[in-house]
């Protein structure tokens, strides 16, 4: 059983076709990297998975459960969309941490709000809140940020912010964690610490979709690579197939300009 | 000078009563204007075109005409034109009419400040909340509101300080606020007449109260400096 099945996703903005009939599958524990030049539609694809955009056609299935179907997209209630959204976690290029909360609070907030909405919260408040905090601290520890838990985002470096953002996404235990160019806003020194954390997650069999320009990293960490151009998947396969021995002319062109070696 | 000192207790008593009315109008305007302004901000940003058009029209009217005219229209229009003097003739009626005018006028200004504040919060904040499964309400109250407040404190401070002084316009419908109280000693009141100094003296009340407001507002601004 595939953890994720994307079929025939298309998306138009005004008159531009950003995605054309995109289909792919992914297995639990896989790391899938999406490569491609700017404007190839990779970010839009990620945003569609996270319900930040609505596809015009196609469907998305997570664990055999259809979470999105363009033919009845308008009929879903906000609550249903919210529930389906939680299959996915998202790490943004610009972190989007909440500035008025500390690192720890950033990680805890969404979990707290979700738990508070449940009926059993009232009777077991203290234990549940303690559990959320313990797990959030554990995540920060995993990100190497234990000593930064009380810091506000403006007191953290970009790399630290992004690691908090990763912990924040992990706090909701998503089935699939998505990264939208997570290191594009960081200088090379800080990029390393974020990639290291992502590598650790990959080693722990976290299912991840990574949109990135870090080709050597994608090669090392991914089980599969999608190369996109002009809204279509040009080539897909293992890193050795797509990155080491690309078949398509467009892929070769792209990789040769990215001087990976 | 001796005369002024002898008149002082009587004058101060009147001015204090007048200033109490000034403060009442000030706080009622804030109490009504803050929430109504927020509602209007959402109205003017609504994707439902008729609603945003109507809201913008209302804002255009209340910002485009003098508050003094609005006071006169709201107080006299029902009686003169509709033949139904809803406000009655007493001080309570004048206060109600003045409150309504001020709340409507100020909520229009507030709504534009709110709108600026709401739009200043980056879209990424909303998106981060959405992907974390938050509801629209949670995103507004738990994520955006404080960031918005931080942005609007400086322009809001300006409006609040202007409002303190604008309450004096209610004099035009004979609301017995502090200017009215000061002026009464020119015409003659409580055995004092032809005295112009009580009028001038009212300036101290505004000055001191605005001094207090400035301190409170800059304290608030400081308090919000813990994040960026």
Could you describe the 3D structure shown?
Chain A has two domains: 174 residues, Rossmann fold; 75 residues, no CATH class. Chain A is built from nine helices and ten strands. By secondary structure, chain A is α/β, with parallel strands linked by helices. The longest helix of chain A has 18 residues. Chain B is flat, with a radius of gyration of 21 Å. Chain B is mostly helical and 228 residues long. Chain B has a single domain, classed as MetI-like fold (Orthogonal Bundle). In chain B, helix 5 runs antiparallel to helix 6. Chains A and B meet through helix 2, strand 6 and helix 3 of A and helix 5 and helix 6 of B.
Question: Topology of this protein?
Answer:
The complex is a heterodimer of chains A (261) and B (228).
Chain A lengths: L3 E10 L2 E11 L4 E5 L6 H8 L7 E6 L2 E5 L8 H8 L2 E4 L11 H14 L8 H18 L15 H13 L5 E5 L7 H16 L4 E4 L3 H7 L2 E6 L2 E6 L1 H6 L4 H9 L4
Parallel strand pairs in A: 3-8, 3-9, 6-7, 7-8
Antiparallel strand pairs in A: 1-2, 1-4, 4-5, 9-10
Helix pairs in contact in A: 3-4, 3-5, 4-5, 5-6
Chain B lengths: L1 H44 L3 H16 L2 H14 L10 H30 L2 H9 L4 H31 L11 H10 L9 H27 L5
Helix pairs in contact in B: 1-2, 1-4, 1-7, 1-8, 2-4, 3-4, 4-6, 5-6, 6-8, 7-8
Can you summarize this structure?
The complex is a heterodimer of chains A (261) and B (228). With 261 residues, chain A is α/β, with parallel strands linked by helices.
